[in-house]
User: What shape does this take?
Amino acid sequence: MATMTILGAGLAGLSTAMMLHHDGHDVTVLERDPALPGDRPWDTWQRPGVNQFRLPHFLLPRWWSALSEDLPAAAAELVAAGGTRFLPVPGERRDGDARFETVTARRPVVEAALARAAAAAGVTVRRGVRACGVRLDGATRVTGVATDQGVVPADLVIDCSGRRSPMPAWLGERKPVEERDGGGFVYYARHFRGEMPELRTVLQQQYESVSLLTLPADNSTWSVVVIASAKDHALRALRDPAVWTALVSRYPLAAPWIEAAPITGVDVMAGIEDRLKHYTADGAPVVTGMVPVGDAWACTNPSLGRGAAFTLLHARVLRDVLRDTDPADHDKLARRFHEATARTMLPLYRATNAFDTHRLAEIDGDVTGVPYRPEDPRWIGAKALYAAAQRDPDMLRAYLAISSFLETPDEVFARPGLRDRVLALGVSAPQYPLGGCSRAEIVSVCRSAATER
Assistant: This one.
C-alpha cells in the first residue's frame, strides 16, 4: 500500500483519511490549526483556518447514508456527541420516508466527532504543522509537502484544504484553470437553543428577495439563516439582532424557530463563490502525485447544504480509484481520478451551480423590480416542483429526493408521469407559493426596526 499525505483535518481530510486508512494505506494528515477539540467543541474550539467553522451547517441525508455505510464508527461518534436524528419531511410520515433521515450537528461538533473516530482508528493527524509548498520531481510530479517543520514525502498528496486551497499558487505555471461564479449571496444567521419547533415546511424556504433556512443541529440547538443578495444594501441592517428578529418574525413558518434563547448574535458571511478547478489540460493531468478532494476541487455556496455530502462522495471516488490503480503509476492514477470525478461529481456541481445562478438572479430581480423570467427548462421545472411540493405529498418527496442529494433532477423527472404532475400542480402556482413579506414590506420592516434602535 501507499504513503498518503492529506492537507487539512476538516471534514474532507478526516473522512478521506479514514477511508484510505481502512484500506491499508499509510495516511498522515497535516493541519495548520494547533488546537485539539475539547469536551465542549462549540464553546472551546477555535479554527481560524476555517472561516465558516461557527456558521450554520446541515448534514444532508445523502451524507448520513454514506457516512453510516463507509465510516460507521464515525457515525456512532456523532450520535454519541449529541447529533440530532432528524427527518426533514413535514406532515404525515409514510413508508419509505426513512431514506430521508439524517443525523446533523454544528460544524465544531461534527469535526470533533470525526477527529475522535480518526484517532481511534489509528490515523496520524499532525496539528500545528503549516504546509508552505509542494516538492516536485521534475516539472509535473508532486513527491511531498514542504512544511514549517520540514519536508513530508508522499506517494500521493491529497489536497483537502478547502475552498481557499493554496495548491494553485504552489504549482506555479502548472496551476489549474478556475471557473468562478455565484459569489453574490450574503448570509445573516443566528443559533438558538431550546425545544425544537415542529417542522411545518421544507428547510429552505424561498420568498421574495430572500430565502430562509431553518436548520436543526445538535444538543437541542438549531440555526435560522436569512439569505439575500450582497447587492441588497437595504438588508445590511440585518446585522443588528433586533432588526433580524423583526424581519424573521414576520414569516409564520420561520417565526416559531426564533422563539427560543439565542446563543449567538447575527453572524454574517459573504463572498462565497461557486468555484471549480480544472486539474487537466487537453485531457492530460496538470500534475501527478497530487489530487484535490472536496472544496479544494469544487465548492458551492452553502445555502443548499451540499458541501459535506459532496466531499464524502468525492472521497469515496478517490478510494474506489485507488482500489483499482497502483499509486506508483502516477499518470494513470491522475487520469483515472480526474475521469471518475468528471463522471460522478461534475454533474452534481453543474446542477448546484445552475441553481445558485438562477436563484441569485431571481433575488436580484426582486430587489430591482425587474422580474426574472429565464427560458431554461430546468429552472422552470425546479420552480414548478418546489411549488408542487407544497401541495402534494408525492411531489414533496420528489423534491426532497433532490434537496437531500439522494437523486439528481434528471433521475426524479424521469419517473413515469412525474413531469406531467409537476406541470399541472406547479407551473400556474405563484412565484413564491409560501407567501411571506413583499419586497416593500421587507424594506419597511428593516428600516423601521433600525430607526427604532
Q: What stands out?
A: The first helix runs from residue 11 to 22. The two ends are 63 Å apart (CA to CA). DSSP finds 15 helices and 21 strands in the chain.
